[in-house]
Amino acid sequence: MNGNIAISGSKNAALPLLAAALLADEPMTLNNVPRLQDIYAFNNVLRVVGAQVQFQDIENRVIIDPSNVNYLEAPYDLVRKMRASFYMLGALVGKHGYAKVSMPGGCAWGPRPVDLHLKGMEAMGITITLDKGYVIAKAGSSVPGGRYRLEPSSVGATINLLLAAVLRAESFTIGNAAKEPDVVQLCNVLNKMGANISGVGSDTLSIKKAQKLSGGTFENDPDRIEAGTFMIAAAMLPESSLRLIGCNAQHLGNFPQLLRQTGAKVNVEGEVISVQAPEILQPVSITTEIYPGFPTDLQAQWATMLSQANGNSTVTDTVYFDRFSYVPELSRLGANIKLKHNTAYIQGPTLLEGASVMSTDLRASVSLVLAGMAAKNTSEILRVYHLDRGYESLEDKLNAIGAKLTRAQE
Ligand code: EPZ
């Protein structure tokens, strides 16, 4: 694989900003928003509550006008499709003092609790009641606030508590807050809108109540997980050399350094990350951690690469203990990978043979694409709608650098 890939805007960074638009008194314009199913789904949730949402696909621009929001509920049939819709709870109760939002479903790899979101809001003084699968949050004109420590640290809970607190809580502190770039971007945008958040980028966020938030135009971060995925592709596919354009290497934490340990050449020059495959791919074991540790969203892709490494290695996920539904599918392609609790034991290198395999979730599905590109013969990957949730124009980007991906008409 050789050539350049332009990195799209980040899905996980854009979603909290779309929710934050509901907190403003004027329209918000967001640039660099990827054309993805999850973004379309979130835009529909915003429309259900009464916001005007215009997605100018070609320019990757979304304009949200929240001034007519009048329906403070997010229904089950929308929230179950996309877990991040649960951010509507913080945005609606934060802006309007009331919200009724469906509990999110689980996902392919297991339960995804929201207990921290709810306990944190209660600690703030918001009244939370559960009613037939819905969460009802009431905050009156304001709540006293206080402090709440997240255990474990949670990206979603940090985001939801920020959305609830900035206009509603007199003074609120989040302990053990997530420091992912998605959270930092949300804090910076909220502060530019008029919020009063201190400790941005640290694991302690303190919020003082703001009277109002203005709209504005903001540029969404590039997608660090998409960049990491293509960096792994370049390292695992022999003789590859890729240049990823429009990245922010700071958002990848210790990932580039770890990738260098495989023997891959990784060079960062401003917004361009170049990766060249090594002669012999060295096995490098990893354990996922919260930012700036190894991201759980790159764990499946890394394990796939290790099937091609010259030796044995392990992948352990401490964020999601059961995020290994891709393992049996990789085995079908010939990988030598055994699972014990939340660790995958991988022996390499193994010659992968094309086969039909099943995508189970967003990151597992892209890992199967990488495996298919490394395998002999042709692989068929089913349920690729998972891919369309998180990777903009994946076939075009990979075929432009020498892959042979075709989408069968279902
Ligand atoms: C976000 O999910 C991302 N999703 C996930 O990316 C990502 O894997 C995850 O953060 C971790 O980085 C979006 O940004 C839309 P968490 P989130 O709350 O917020 C436990 C992808 O592939 N927890 O940080 O749901 C939880 O079980 C997606 O793009 C509680 O116990 O993740 C997990 O073990 C998949 N109680 C840990 O915290 C709670 O109330 C971290 O989860 C909330 C979370």
Structure description:
The protein is α/β, with parallel strands linked by helices. It folds into 2 domains: 9-207, Alpha-beta prism (UDP-n-acetylglucosamine1-carboxyvinyl-transferase, Chain), CATH 3.65.10; 224-399, Enolpyruvate transferase domain (UDP-n-acetylglucosamine1-carboxyvinyl-transferase, Chain). It is 31% helix and 25% strand. It is built from 14 helices and 22 strands. The protein has helices spanning 11-20, 37-48, 76-79, 87-96, 115-124, 155-165, 181-193, 224-236, 255-260, 299-306, 327-332, 362-374, 385-390, 394-399; strands spanning 2-6, 28-31, 52-56, 61-65, 73-74, 98-102, 127-131, 134-138, 143-149, 169-175, 196-198, 204-208, 216-219, 241-245, 265-269, 272-276, 286-288, 312-317, 336-340, 343-347, 356-358, 380-382. The strands form 6 sheets. The chain has a 4-stranded mixed sheet. It has a 4-stranded mixed sheet with strand order 3-4-2-13, covered by helices on one side. It has a 4-stranded mixed sheet with strand order 5-6-8-7. Helix 1 (11-20) runs parallel beside helix 2, helix 4 runs parallel beside helix 6 and helix 8 runs parallel beside helix 10 (299-306). The longest helix is centred in the middle third of the chain and has 13 residues, at 181-193. The chain starts with a strand and ends in an 11-residue tail after the last helix. The structure holds ligand EPZ.
Order the strands across the largest sheet as they lie in space. 1-14-16-15
Shape: globular
Strand content: 15-25%
CATH architecture of the largest domain: Alpha-beta prism
In angstroms, what separates the terminal alpha carbons?
28 Å
The set of bound ligands, ions and cofactors reads: ligand EPZ
- Mean pLDDT, rounded to whole units? 95
Total number of strands = 22
Total of domains = 2
Number of helical regions: 14
CATH class of the largest domain equals Alpha Beta
Coarse structural class: alpha/beta
How is the CATH topology of the largest domain named? UDP-n-acetylglucosamine1-carboxyvinyl-transferase, Chain
Q: Helix share of residues?
A: 25-40%
Q: Using the CA coordinates, give the radius of gyration.
A: 21 Å
Low-confidence stretches: none
- Largest beta sheet, briefly? 4 strands, mixed
